[in-house]
Amino acid sequence: MLLLEMGMKSLYNIKRQCSIVRPHIGVVTNVGEAHVGSLGNLDIVVKAKQEIIDGMRPRGTLFLNADDARSRKLNTRNFIGKIRTFGIKNPAYIRGRNVHYTSRGMKFEAKINGKIYPFFIPTFGIHNVYNALAAIGVSLSMGVPIKAIQTGLARFHAPQMRLQLIRGQASRLLINDAWNANPTAMAAGLHVLKNIAGSRPTIAVLGDMLELGRLTYSSHQRIGRLIARLNIDHLITIGKNARIIAQSAIQSGFDRSRVTVCHSREEVLYHLSYAPRNALIYFKASRKLHLEKIVKRFKA
CA separation (Å) from 13 to 98, 147, 162? Predict the structure, then answer.
């Protein structure tokens, strides 16, 4: 078995990869904003993701997200094979339900062929439940027993800088989610911050989201509005674009005194040194900002 991620930054990237390795099974987890800046707009992102469907082997199996609006724009009329869906909100072949945060990860059930099965993944976020549902579907299509899938998911290890929990100085807890950023991923991470905080004060350290093209301003505005809605205790931004997050949060009613706009990693470190002793601190930005260097300085 060979499992590949079909990387995409422009049109025909996936097409070329599929011409070399034609997949028997294809998964489109969602059609999001990643690389929209280099592609031009979200409709072209849909076209780029379409290439995996068009490049699959005949009589293969395709998995699509039933809850993702842009995935519904994908054209499957000419696809020769099985189409399976996964989701939580809408009816799907593999449907998640009773999704809960626990102290160690996400607990949920999956309804498959009318039967209910319990699952646990040792990482956080509804978005990761969607990923798990896709993984369940792929595994079942390959004949893997449910019990083995349950065991495998329970032993999952998240990659570094992907919602990575790290003990910080002075009883602080750090969430290193600094590998890369787009608005959907940043919003998902902020929901995780709020859901696992408990009584801990929450601090979001957010940097520029790059490669968004014409969506740059609106995407950063959207995150600012979410900060205000989630009522995060303190917002720290770094970078020119991230200032839009701060402005949007304040315009949405977020207290200006709870916003700190920084211009360098050293400035962020200085302000974080005054963070409450038991704070939960979330780090997210595009790769170019290297926020993990701040995390490294703050580790216990």
Answer: 38, 36, 25
pTM of the model: 0.95
Strand, coil or helix: what is 182? Answer: coil
What residues contact residue 39 under an 8 Å CB cut-off, 6+ apart? 9, 10, 11, 45, 48, 213
pLDDT per residue as tens digits for the range 119-132: 999 999 999 999 99
Which DSSP string corresponds to 108-176?
EEEEETTEEEEEEESS--HHHHHHHHHHHHHHHHTT--HHHHHHHHHT--PPTTSSEEEEBGGG-EEEE
**What domains does the chain contain, in order, with CATH numbers?**
13-154 (3.40.1190.10), 164-298 (3.90.190.20)
Could you read off the pLDDT of 138-185 as tens digits, one per residue? 999 999 999 999 999 999 999 999 999 999 999 999 999 999 999 999
Among 176, 248, 188, 247, residue whose Cα is nearest residue 33: 188
Q: Does the pLDDT at position 9 exceed 90? A: no
Q: Which tokens hold the place of 45?
A: 């992102």
